[in-house]
Amino acid sequence: MLFRFCFCFLRCLFYYVLRICNFSTTLMNSYRLLTRKYSSTALIENVGQYLKHCKLKKVNTTSTVFRGTLYEFHVKHLLELKLHGKNMIRCGGSYDNGIDIIGQWDLDPFYQISLKMNNVEHKIHNASLLHLLPGTSTKRPISLSNDIQLVVQCKNTKKRLGAAEVRQLSGILEYHKFNKKRTFMMMVSPHPLTVQGITQLNKSSYPMINLIVSPLKNEMDHYDYDNWEGGSLCSAYLNHAATKVLSGFRMEQQLLQLIK
């Protein structure tokens, strides 16, 4: 209990310092190291490890907590495997401040593919990250591989999410003072947003993407990851801000190729 209290205090302290310093690179790396070392499920980095941990601790696999945590680890794996997420850390829990997964989004593979696509696109929007690449007129160029922050919130619910949940998500982004030009928020759930939810998503000034990842199902051994079915990427919706920032990447077309 004392260990958990000390960790929670340290993590909250880091969140506060990061907020003041606007998530400077040095502090962000320190936060990642701290979270990686002392996460709420210590030393657990993937689905397989989590299930082994649950089997050892005889965790109730029908509980909401188990299903929610399993969904988060699966989403983390999916983002790493299909969307080039890297340095991904699951930090979900009672003191996650609304963030379940945090890491980086390597956009360079998407950019390289976009250069080979023949589709003609309209003029690149002024807000596009492509205007910040080395060789452009910008004074502070960015790296598509290392400078894009990815923040993820998972909602493993049985109903569609609406405007209230999206507003809450926007509030989380404002609270943490993320860089709007270099941060993407992904809201992941098994079901599409309501019409009101989509409207609210498009009102956000932050680049936000709603991913639909189907529910995980298992009628056999719950502790064996191979027995779980579902968890496929079913759809992806980019809000207006994300569409502008990713202008030129042909991201919507590339995401369509990943959807089952």
From TrEMBL:
InterPro entries named in the record: RRG7 (IPR018828)
Subcellular localization, as worded in the UniProt entry: Mitochondrion
Pfam families (alphabetical): RRG7
Keyword Zinc-finger: no
Chief location of this protein within or outside the cell: mitochondrion
Keywords: Mitochondrion
Gene Ontology, cellular component aspect: mitochondrion
Coiled coil: none
Entry annotated with the keyword Transcription: no
UniProt cross-references to PANTHER family, sorted A to Z: REQUIRED FOR RESPIRATORY GROWTH PROTEIN 7, MITOCHONDRIAL
Protein family (similarity comment): Belongs to the RRG7 family.
Protein name: Required for respiratory growth protein 7, mitochondrial
Organism the protein comes from: Candida parapsilosis (Yeast)
